[in-house]
Design goal:
Layout: E1 6-8, E2 31-33, E3 76-81, E4 84-90, H1 100-113, E5 118-122, H2 126-138, E6 141-147, H3 152-160, E7 164-168, H4 172-184, E8 188-189, H5 199-212, E9 220-224, H6 229-243, E10 252-258, H7 263-274, H8 296-305, E11 309-313, H9 315-326, H10 334-346, E12 354-358
Parallel strand pairs: 4-12, 5-6, 5-8, 6-7, 9-10, 9-12, 10-11
Antiparallel strand pairs: 1-2, 3-4
Length: about 375
């Protein structure tokens, strides 16, 4: 089996040929792809639907069987916001209702190829529901650890796929700590935060946007940021298109966090001192409630390289965003709605065309005020 091109970002050791560790077995570092994504439009398989038409960009061995539910090919629809025409990438129309499906398809394909029969994951909801569906598709037994405050609708979705659900008291960080403790005792951890295999899946959003805009790059992309895997994927996708000579420059990447839990925004605007004022407070945007992003440095670097920035949104403005999108026919969850108020804050600084990524379905969340 050829190399996956994945190495420890700390010590440089390659990802092992056997097993599926979530972090480096030698130093505990985080794994990531060693080099950039190679995008060749001539190698796109137009006969294959969804993200797997871009398989050549995933760097997975040919013998790995795709575990797919038809993810990808989400529409790019135009609407008016703040008297300005913008494009909405409707990721909430993926099979389980969120963009996470693009990454779960690759993670499930990888761990299935490593003969994993049982694994765990931790999630505030969407990632758990997504990996539960793909684990079911692959015939893998799955346990999901979630905060006790997670949406009841998402809980039911996870259980519907046959996964075992375990509620953990405390913060979102406490949930991750429990999952890591179990993983360190020998259980496979299908982590959307630690494993890097989902990132090329998220990069397919960039390829689709490029094609849907008539083989052109957007001027600005505004998207929610928690762990930041989505932003990294979109960044690497557009960078791959640029390196292929198909676009001249990267779009501005604008990451959005909930002010109640905005560590990357605090760090971006105030440096290390800014973190002193950051909190891990309650927020309707549970999908971005991440206190210690695993790839935070890489996310900040990607934003800086694009000449973009980070924005934080207050709770009352999140609710406004949900309502404004719904009135235009887009029923999204609060995490997706962050991008509405972010656009209002930065519209005059954005380059056209502007793309807002709507990450999760409103059918999976009930706002309680």
């Amino acid at each position: 089996m050829r190399s996956l091109g994945v190495v420890c970002t700390n010590c440089g050791r390659e990802y092992p040929e056997n097993g599926s560790p979530y972090r480096c077995l030698k130093c505990g570092g985080v794994y990531d792809f060693e080099g950039p994504i190679n995008f060749d439009p001539q190698k796109i398989n137009r006969y294959q639907g969804g993200i797997w038409k871009y398989r050549q960009t995933f760097n997975l061995p040919e013998e790995i069987e795709p575990i797919s539910l038809g993810e990808g090919d989400s529409p790019l629809l135009w609407s008016v916001a703040f008297n300005h025409e913008v494009a909405l990438k409707c990721e909430y129309l993926n099979p389980t209702g969120s963009y996470k499906d693009r990454g779960s398809s690759l993670i499930a394909s990888f761990i299935h190829s490593r003969k994993v029969g049982e694994c765990i994951e931790d999630s505030s909801g969407n990632a758990g529901a997504s990996i539960a569906a793909y684990a079911a598709r692959a015939g893998i037994k799955l346990g999901i650890y979630i905060p006790e405050t997670a949406s009841g609708i998402k809980r039911k979705q996870i259980e519907a796929y046959g996964a075992s659900l375990f509620s953990v008291k405390g913060t979102r960080s406490d949930v991750s700590a429990v999952a890591k403790q179990i993983a360190d005792s020998g259980m496979t951890y299908a982590s959307h935060a630690y494993l890097p295999f989902n990132i090329p899946g998220y990069a397919t959003i960039a390829y689709e946007i490029y094609e849907q805009l008539g083989n052109k790059a957007p001027g600005t992309v505004i998207l929610p940021v928690g762990q930041g895997g989505l932003l990294l994927g979109v960044s690497r996708g557009f960078d791959a298109i640029r390196k292929a000579g198909l676009i001249e420059k990267m779009p501005l990447l604008v990451g959005v966090q909930a002010r109640a839990c905005a560590p990357l925004w605090s760090l971006y605007n105030g440096g290390v001192d800014g973190l002193r004022f950051a909190t891990e407070g309650p927020t309707l945007a549970e999908g971005v409630k991440v206190w210690q992003p695993i790839r935070g440095d890489a996310v900040l670097k990607a934003i800086g390289s694009s000449r973009g920035w980070l924005i934080a949104i207050d709770e009352e403005d999140i609710v406004v965003g949900v309502d404004e999108f719904a009135r235009r026919g887009f029923h999204v969850e609060p995490t997706s709605a962050l991008v509405w108020s972010a656009l209002g804050q930065c519209l005059n600084e954005c380059a056209d065309p502007i793309v807002l990524i709507l990450t999760g379905s409103g059918l999976k969340h009930r706002i309680m005020l």
